Every structure is written in C-alpha cells, then in structure tokens.
Amino acid sequence: MKKSDFNYDLPNELIARYPLEKRVDSRLLVVGENDFSDKVFADLPMLLREGDLLVFNNTRVIAARLFGHKETGGKLEILIERVMGDKTALAHVRCSKSPKAGTHIILNDGYKCLVDGREGDLFQLTFDDSIDTVLKAIGHMPLPPYIDRDDETLDIERYQTVFGRKPGAVAAPTAGLHFDERLLDDIKSLGVNFAYVTLHVGSGTFQPVREENLADHIMHKEWLTVDEQTVQQIEATKKNGGRVIAVGTTAMRSLESAAKEGAIKPFTGDTDLFITPGYHFNVVDAMVTNFHLPESTLLMLVSAFSGYQRMKLAYQHAIAQRYRFFSYGDAMFLTKMSDTTE
To answer: Which GO terms describe its cellular component (predicted)?
Structure first.
C-alpha cells in the first residue's frame, strides 16, 4: 500500500484543541464487523468482560519544551526527545541557525546547557542543573503542533493520564486520557484485570511519513519495557479465554514488539516496529484508540488491526457525526478482524 491510501480530508473545526470538562464525556465509536455504534467513553464497561486484561502505558509526559537564546542572541526553542542522564538529553532545537558544538544555550531564569554535538537530527545537550530541576522550573507541556495554541495551566493535568507513573514521554499516550479514577474502579469491579507497560512516547509520533512507498519509511525509535509480571498476566488471560485489550497504539506497539518472534517475552529497549496492513498480530485482541492524523503511522497501525476498508468507513462516519479528532479528541473501540490484510 501507499502513503496516499491513508489520506482523508478533515474539517479544521473537528481538531480538538481543548479537553472536555470530564474525561469520560468523550465520545466512543465502537467499530463492529458490519456496523458502527455511537457511545460515550463512560460506556466502555459495557464492552468489557470478566477475565479481560486492559494493558495501559504508564508513562508520564515531562514538561519537555524550553525557551531561550544562543550566546549570540538568536532566540530558540528546545524540545527534549530523550533524557539520557541526570543532566544530559537528546533534543530538537528550533532556531534560525543551528547552534554549534561547544556553545551554550541560555534558557529562561538563567539556566544554561552546553551543546555537545549532534546525533542525526537531534542535539546532545548537557545542562548545568539536573534536567528534572530545569523542567520543573521553566518547562512547558509539549502539546502537539496541531493543537495550535500555547500550553496552559489546565494542560499540566489534562495532557497526562491518571495512571501515569514513569516520567519520560514528550507526547501523551492519548487513548489513556479518557479514563478517570471512578471509571477505572467501575471496570475493576467487573473482574477486568489491569497490566502496565512503559513506552516513552517521542515527538516522532507526529512526524509525517514522507515516502510514498511505505517500505521506504524509516520508523522513529522509542524506548519501552514489558516486564515479567505483564507477560505472566497476558499468558494467564489467554489461557483462561480472556481478551488482551491495548489502551492505545503505544501499548499495542509495546506488546507486539515484545512478541515479534511469536510468543511474548519480557523486553526492554528501543522499538522501531512499523505496523501496516498485512501485519500478523501476536498478542492484542482489541484496543482503545483515538483518531489519528492523515497518512500517519498510527492510522496505518489501526488499519492493519481492524481492516483498511473498515477504518476508512469508520473515519467517514466519525467526520459525518462530528467526532472530535486527535489528542484531546474522542476515541474508538476496535476488535481485531480476521481480514486484516484487506
């Protein structure tokens, strides 16, 4: 398939630039084999069964956007991509002319960092203070570019899942944004089990696929861990006839990365797994996901999971019914279809 096969026209006003007042008030499009059902996210327990396993990505978003200027005075913006140590990070630096190795960047409130060099498109930075200290003092939440506004106080809480525990992401695992504590309690009371993976979502999740031939696309890398406890929970769920349900594409990629050879095993490291139609899924039976950008790797993933034609119709339905799109938007509940190679 080609990149252009995953294009669609989205009215600008359907891009959600703010979250709803209550997380569970988002709409939920249930995609069946032959029909669609329009619900709200609070209805999710109706779709779950005793013995199912929900797998969440427990990463937390860091305040990864920083502002400052070069020693020569030129303004710039830093987006930390990956924290490498207490004071070191790889980052994108946006400015009119790239800073040179050996020079300092002067950040707000007098903080500084040294440009050590380059690693591809990323800059190696060493901060004078711990990165945690710097981000807590002057960092901004790294909202996606399509939200098209400055971050606000509300984003500190709402661009974060209620179950996030492991700091390191620079983008939220957005399918998880719809859950609140009460809904989680309601789901547990049904006898549904919870498991957790950690995938620190990188800014590459927003990068467009530039090659028309999907085989030529170089997938960005993200760090993840799937531990022994989660593997055991998945094996027990499968043995007992329950479903493994990924909450979001990041949980999906984590599980499938840990099962690339077939059986799932504990895994820690980078993944560049690129899932397109024709992919054989080894672990996940159903998933919760948001609506994704045209021609994005995430749209390709859900099309592989539930079928290309089915996703095409689902997106047409969502647009016609005025669903809200992208990170602060509405969600879908998908099941794995037998004809995923369509």
So the answer is: cytoplasm
Position 339 confidence tier, pLDDT thresholds 50, 70, 90: very low
Quote the CA–CA distance of 72 and 135 in Å, as a whole number: 24
Kindly state whether residues 22 and 82 are assigned to the same domain: no
Q: Please give the residue that has the higher pLDDT: either 222 or 34.
A: 222
**Helix (H, G, I), strand (E, B), or coil: what is residue 36?**
strand
Its domain, for residue 316, covers 3-61+155-335
Tokens 């937390």, residue? 60
Of 138, 172, 188, which residue is a domain's last?
138
Nearest to 330 by CA among 30, 4, 121, 7: 30
With a threshold of 0.90, does the pTM exceed it? yes
* Both structure tokens of 165: 């525990």
Torsion, Cα 257 276 236 41, to 10 degrees, reads 110
Domain ends where: 111, 138, 165? Answer: 138
194 found inside a domain: yes
Task: State residue 141's pLDDT score.
Answer: 97
3-class SS at 191?
A: coil
The per-residue DSSP string of 290-303 comes to E---TT-HHHHHHH
- How many distinct structural domains can be found in the chain? 2
For residues 260 and 121, state if they share a domain. Answer: no
